[in-house]
Amino acid sequence: MDVFIIFVTGVLFAIAWPTLQVTHHVPAGVQPVIAGLAALPLLLVRANPALGWAISAAGALVIPLVFDRTDDYDFPWQVVHVMVMMVLLVAVSMRAPIPVVGVAWVSTVLLFLADAPGQDGRGWAVGLTALVLFGLLIRWLVLSRRELARQEEVNEVERARRAILEEKARIARDLHDVVAHHMSLVVVQAQSAPYRIDDVSPAARAEFESIGATARDALNEIRGMLGVLRSDGQLAEDAPMPGLDRIDELVEGSRRAGMQVQVDRIGMPERLSDSAGLTMYRILQESLSNAARHAPGAPVRVILGGDGGLATMAVVNDRPVGTTVSTVADHAGGHGIAGMRDRASSVGGSLVAQPRPDGGFEVLARVPAVPGAAVSSGHVTPA
After folding, report:
1. Burial (CB count <10 Å: 0-12, 13-18, 19+), residue 37
2. Which domain holds residue 16?
3. How is residue 231 annotated by DSSP?
4. What is the DSSP letter of 117?
5. What CA–CA distance (Å, rounded) separates 136 from 277?
6. Are 255 and 293 in contact (CB under 8 A)?
7. Rounded (to 5) percent helix, strand, coil in the chain
8. Which of 40, 215, 281, 309 is the least crowded, having the fewest Cβ atoms under 10 Å away?
9. Which stretch, 207-221, 234-248, 269-283, 313-327, has highest mean pLDDT?
10. Predicted structure pTM score
């Protein structure tokens, strides 16, 4: 488009210069300047039409006062000058602020009324007014189309948001009707078992209490998830956000389930963001769950530490009695491992889950303690 404007301006200048001597008495040395005042303002039609119009109008005001017209030409300006000024006036009407449009319209009309021969000024005033109205009409059409497109985009986003909310509500209903219902039954059965069954031993009673407590914790987390799923996304701060401060509760729940879990804390970072704490909590939760499923009865050691601006965690379990190394290694490719790896990478961290040479399994996680901390490719080494 810019190339086309330059080309048209060059053609008009090439016409205005040689024909200037036909319309006005202008010295030969000044003719390129006057021809430039007539044609060159068109170069600003896209970049700054108001400035281009101002230069063209100023030239139209000065030229009749300084240079006389030839005997055979009674119009105050060259045809090229009039064409350029009209194009710039339309461009001003389409793009400039409304007050500037008003100034340009009134000034141009007065200019033609004052300098046009005879009664021609009135006709030019009507024509220039029609040009300005045409430019304003195009301006309003363009603005209305842009507003319509913007509104359609907003509506599309709102439709997508509603679809997501409906899907979240459906998932919440399914969780409530199926998972939460059955978890509630587990809690009730575990709590009432010592009273429904005769001669329950103290060990069995403690086991029932542990099952009930674990089920209640799971039910509370499910209820928290249901609250988040049923929300419209505006209350993210109310979502459940467990962190390292709840590690002891998580470990205690695993111990109640019969697991042997040892926790060592070695140089933990002084500051830990909520996202980092939540990530570490969920990784430990999944790791303990995997150990309970794939290595029942095997001791588990959790090592929490720090490395500069990083929070590190190692979860290591021994090989359970009666299994082989290959059997223990089979669970390394499960969906839980992939989920833990995704959680770590979502906060800029890294995670390695791999079998140990002795037949056990280890999960090694490194997470930035605060957003922006760099994570090296090194691994956490269990002590």
Report:
1. buried
2. 2-117
3. S
4. S
5. 58
6. no
7. 65, 10, 25
8. 309
9. 269-283
10. 0.47
